[in-house]
Amino acid sequence: MTRYLEDTATERLEADEREGLYGPLAEAVRALVDASIRTEVDDHVIRQATADLERIAGHLRAHQLPGSYGVHSEAPGRRRTWGSPVIGVRNPIAPPLTLQHAPDGLVWSEFRVGTAYEGPPGRLHGGMAALILDHVLGEAVSASGHWGLTGTLTLRYRRGTPLGRLRTEARIDRVEGRKAYVVGSIADDEGITVEAEAIFILPKGYVHPDATA
Amino acid sequence: MTRYLEDTATERLEADEREGLYGPLAEAVRALVDASIRTEVDDHVIRQATADLERIAGHLRAHQLPGSYGVHSEAPGRRRTWGSPVIGVRNPIAPPLTLQHAPDGLVWSEFRVGTAYEGPPGRLHGGMAALILDHVLGEAVSASGHWGLTGTLTLRYRRGTPLGRLRTEARIDRVEGRKAYVVGSIADDEGITVEAEAIFILPKGYVHPDATA
Q: Where is the Thioesterase domain (chains A, B) (predicted)?
């Protein structure tokens, strides 16, 4: 986890404009992810769609970052997270989550997941719960003014998590030296389904920035 | 994790044919997932692509499963896994992994991950490592002739995992009553980057099927 600098006013305006362009593209691809799994249209429609999608991908790839987003985009401020598989508005794998920050340091989000995230029938894949929780727990560390890399992550699955509308939250528990201890959960309307705890470790050679929470 | 029945010869032939239709569709959408994050083409090309993709999604959705794949597809044999976010040939979120089974019960896979799976710049998102390991560990339980639902999953991140070519493996450690203990890892060319251990628990009311490994 890294803590990102705030955008300037000019950067905010430009980021809004870029998000209005890239967000709908990713959303259209998200719809295709879902359709790829669920479609039952005739074979010739699927073959035509496949050919059309390959052609469009070619157009989009005519000019692109030479490697991964994080390495090559050099994006300022909030755009640094646009490639994220959890919160990235440019990443169709991401639901995406919109993270909320409470004054007491709690980080939370309400979000929806569909068939692309399915493990057991009708249930969220346990590994997808882990993906979401790893990210939200890291954000809670960042929100506390600390940062670090995930050292250990432990998930306890209380019961199956249904697909649909869910809530996740995380908060920092304590900081001991270079280690930040953080806890969180995923819940449906009836309560917690998955609990998580993690230790984020500040790599040697780094110092904690000033706490801002 | 559930253990799936083998396909009959007729089902295998039909499954091959269906995979040859749906696989390329998902692969085309995977290319679009990557392009959505990395594209730098002009705004008007992105707007046109977005409109075209929305139209194609509409065609694919004209006739589709009414809900999630696992609940509604009633797919026999190996097709049950086609919606999986880790190994699903119909799920563009999945890399997808092709799982290999060694005679001693080891389950392993070599696979590639790109920018859609990125956390820190150039590195696999820690939660994506968790997603992959949860799935492969569950498969190792299944391959041993047991099954169960993930009870706890613990990940230890030794160092950053680079994007690109990776290997994962898992094996069952022991079974105690209703609990199966399983361990696994993700590695790059220089060795293990993430270790995992999990306990899969057979729900009450179920009995272990005969071990087949």
A: 122-193
Q: What's B114's domain CATH number?
A: 3.10.129.10
CB A88 within 8 A of CB B37: yes
Q: What is the pLDDT of residues B7-54, one digit of tens each?
A: 778 878 888 889 999 999 999 999 999 999 999 999 999 999 999 999
By C-alpha distance, which of B142, B158, B164 is closest to B196? B158
Q: In the numeric block, which tokens belong to residue A167?
A: 């809530």
CA A34 to each of CA B86, B117, B157, B170: distance values in angstroms, whole numbers, following the listed order: 15, 18, 31, 29
- Cβ-based neighbours of B174, under 8 Å, separated by 6 or more: B180, B181
User: Which chain A residues contact residue B85 at CB under 8 A?
Assistant: 116-119, 125, 127-128
With beta carbons less than 8 A apart as the criterion, state whether B163 and B123 touch: yes
In which domain, by residue range, is B151 found? 97-213
Rounded to whole angstroms, the Cα distance separating B7 from A130 reads: 31
Tokens, residue B84? 């999986």
ipTM: 0.92
* pLDDT tens digits for range A1-31: 444 456 778 878 888 889 999 999 999 999 9
User: Token pair of A190, please?
Assistant: 């009836």
Query: Are B64 and B107 found together in one domain?
Result: no
Q: Under an 8 A CB cutoff, do A135 and B125 touch?
A: yes
Is residue B101 domain-shared with residue B129, that is, in the same domain? yes
Average pLDDT, chain A: 91
Chain A residues with CB-CB distance to B139 below 8 A: none
